[in-house]
Amino acid sequence: DLQAKPPSEIPIFLDNLSSNVNKTNITTFAVVNAVVSILETLSTVTKIVDTTMM
Question: Minimal CA–CA distance to 30: which of 41, 20, 38?
Answer without folding.
Answer: 38
